Amino acid sequence: MNIRFHPPVRTVADLLHRLGDIPADRVRFNPVPGTATVEDLLRDENRRCELVDETLVEKPMGVRESLLAIYLGELIGPLVRRQNLGILTGADGTYELLSGLVRLPDLAFVSWDRLPGRRLPDEPVPNVVPDLAVEVLSASNTLGEMARKRGEYFKAGVRLVWEIDPRARTVRVYSSEVAFADLTGADTLDGGTVLPGFTQSLVQFFAELDRHG
Fold it and tell me: Which of 51, 73, 93, 161 could form a disulfide with 102 if both were Cys (CB 3.0 to 4.6 A apart)?
């Protein structure tokens, strides 16, 4: 067994810290951390996992997070289709951002120019980098985890990252790993040059959480 951590990981605490101080119950130990591959990721279809440092890391998603991700896709989708800008994928859309690094944004937009042949990829885990990556924060997400993830997104070539906090009802818009703007209920989310023409009132967006029968 060849475990490939650099620098070496000696304890579970070291591993969790490396992954952003995430809860231990999100780390899969079959296969052993440091030995997992994309094939292992595809083999386990029962859970949503990312592949980070040759380790399978579960990505749980609650009802509120899922609702907001789907709703945002419903809002963006008509613009993307009307202008034929590219494709949108949901929480199961899997991307190999860098060699051996697989992430699952809760929502992603990929322009046609980033897709080989300007067509949908056939591979289940394509080596494709989205223009926009959206992360809807769950209770188990940590500051360290999200900081690492943002760094990887922008290193790979993602142009825009939106972090949505359902509890605070805020959106943090990153145009680079360190440049961001915090939006609250009084603000409008803007697609900028990535999704030209897209705007959405956050008051109206988060009101979806209050809808009832």
Answer: 51
d(C-alpha 80, C-alpha 82), whole Å = 6
Listed in sequence order, the residues at least 6 apart from 31 whose beta carbon sits closer than 8 Å to its beta carbon are 37, 40, 56
Which superfamily is assigned to 63-210 in CATH?
A: tt1808, chain A (3.90.1570.10)
What one-character-per-residue DSSP string does 111-141 give?
Answer: EGGGSGGGS---SSS-S---SEEEEE--TT-
Q: Which two tokens stand for residue 41?
A: 């990721």
Amino acid at 212: H
Query: Which amino acid belongs to residue 148?
Result: R
Helices (H), the chain: 12-18, 38-43, 63-82, 143-156, 202-206
**Which amino acid, 200?**
Q
With 0-12 CB in 10 A as exposed, 13-18 as middle and 19+ as buried, what is 70? middle
- For residue 160, count other CB atoms closer than 10 A to its CB: 21
Domain boundaries, the chain: 12-58, 63-210
Query: Residue 44: what pLDDT?
Result: 75
What distance in Å separates the CA atoms of residue 134 and residue 69, rounded to the nearest whole number? 8
Report the pLDDT value the prediction gives residue 10, as an integer from 0 to 100. Answer: 78
Counting as low any pLDDT under 70, the low residues of the chain are 1-7, 46
